[in-house]
């Protein structure tokens, strides 16, 4: 907010800002606006295989099984040309990881 904007409106400040060209103000009260609910489902399937004195653990991991995409982080700066609040990071999409561990 600039000094010119601070001196307008229903409750004008009545003076210039204290030696700074602009000041940051809250447009929305803190704690009143929240993002989407994050529902992430991960599944792990593993099998232990024994061959003599060796042991092998083979696993298959499924991350974000429901493939949801809620925004995790937001840019809090307001811009008249961009949506507010603007998402800057979303939940990683569905992926699979294959793993194996050999113990001997």
Verbal overview:
0% of the residues are buried. This protein has one helix and five strands. It is rod-shaped, with a radius of gyration of 26 Å. The N and C termini lie far apart (67 Å). The mean pLDDT is 88. By secondary structure, it is mostly beta strands. It folds into two domains: 1-32, no CATH class; 34-104, no CATH class. The longest helix has 4 residues, at 3-6. The strands form two sheets. It has a three-stranded antiparallel β-sheet with strand order 1-2-5, with no helix packed on it.
List the secondary-structure elements in sequence, H or E. Answer: HEEEEE
Look at the helices and sheets and give the structural class.
mainly beta
Q: Whole-Å distance between the termini?
A: 67 Å
How would you write the strand order of the largest sheet?
1-2-5
Biggest sheet character: 3 strands, antiparallel
Question: What proportion of the residues is helical, as a percent range?
Answer: under 10%
Low confidence ranges: none
- DSSP strand tally: 5
Number of domains: 2
Number of helices: 1
Give the DSSP E fraction (strand runs of 2 or more residues): 35-45%
Average pLDDT figure: 88
């Amino acid at each position: 907010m600039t000094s010119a904007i601070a001196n307008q409106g229903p409750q004008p400040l009545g003076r210039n800002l204290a030696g700074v060209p602009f000041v940051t103000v809250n447009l929305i009260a803190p704690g009143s606006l929240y993002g989407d609910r994050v529902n992430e489902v991960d599944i792990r399937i593993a099998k232990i295989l024994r061959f003599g004195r060796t042991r092998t653990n083979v696993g298959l991991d499924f991350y974000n099984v429901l493939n949801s995409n809620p925004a995790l982080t937001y840019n809090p700066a307001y811009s008249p040309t961009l949506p507010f609040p603007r998402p800057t990071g979303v939940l990683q999409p569905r992926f699979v990881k294959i793993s194996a561990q050999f113990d001997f």
